[in-house]
Amino acid sequence: MPLDDPTDDEWFVIRALGGSAPVDPMPAELPAKARVGYRARRPEADVADLVDDSATDPPRGVRELSAFGEGTRLLTFATPDVHVRLEITSRDRLCDIVGQLTPGGAGTVEVRWDDGATTATVDTAGAFVVHNIPPGPMSIVFHRTGQSPLATRWVTV
């Protein structure tokens, strides 16, 4: 029996108290955050999935992430054709992002969070830098000349 399944005694108590398993109440801020996320979607964009995150898996060939500095996180997003590598550094309750889009190409990048966004230029090599991003959920949308937009999945930084 899986650990999440109630025992026979627990089912007896559940039935005696009204018949269904108790459910935690929905957090009060969840509906507003869901509306923000829905409005921020980009249905026309290709989506890059998170494939590597140094917060959960240290980068290959690196003994300690501390070599990159305190508060540094490495993320990689990918589609079959494009890779996005990010180095996110936390400082003074804000984050700086240094990124690389491969293959490269000029364009703009839009970094979005729950109540704001900022843009920066992507150079012809695919590199970009964005400063002063608040911690929390964020997504990045790349606008490349002659191509459909590319959006990363939302991730919390």
Protein described:
By secondary structure, the protein is mainly β. It has one domain (42-156): Immunoglobulins (Immunoglobulin-like, Sandwich), CATH 2.60.40. The chain is 12% helix and 43% strand. The protein contains two helices and ten strands, in the order ααββββββββββ. The chain has helices at 8-16, 30-39, and strands at residues 46-53, 72-78, 83-91, 94-102, 107-113, 116-122, 127-133, 137-144, 150-152, 155-156. Strands 1, 2, 3, 4, 5, 6, 7, 8, 9 and 10 form a ten-stranded mixed sheet that branches. The longest helix has 10 residues, at 30-39. The chain is elongated. It comes from Salinactinospora qingdaonensis. This is Carboxypeptidase regulatory-like domain-containing protein.
Give the arrangement of secondary structure elements:
Elements: H1 8-16, H2 30-39, E1 46-53, E2 72-78, E3 83-91, E4 94-102, E5 107-113, E6 116-122, E7 127-133, E8 137-144, E9 150-152, E10 155-156
Parallel strand pairs: 1-9
Antiparallel strand pairs: 1-2, 2-3, 3-4, 4-7, 5-6, 5-8, 8-9, 8-10
Q: Could you spell the SSE succession in H and E letters?
A: HHEEEEEEEEEE
Strand content: 35-45%
Task: State the CATH architecture.
Answer: Sandwich
- CATH superfamily descriptor: Immunoglobulins
Low-confidence runs of at least 5 consecutive residues = none
How far do the termini sit from each other? 37 Å
Q: Which geometry do the CA atoms define? A: elongated
- Total helices: the number is 2
Average pLDDT metric:
82
Main sheet attributes: strand count, strand direction, barrel closure: 10 strands, mixed
- Given helix and strand content, the structural type is mainly beta
As for the CATH topology, it is Immunoglobulin-like
Q: What is the helix content?
A: 10-25%
CATH class: Mainly Beta
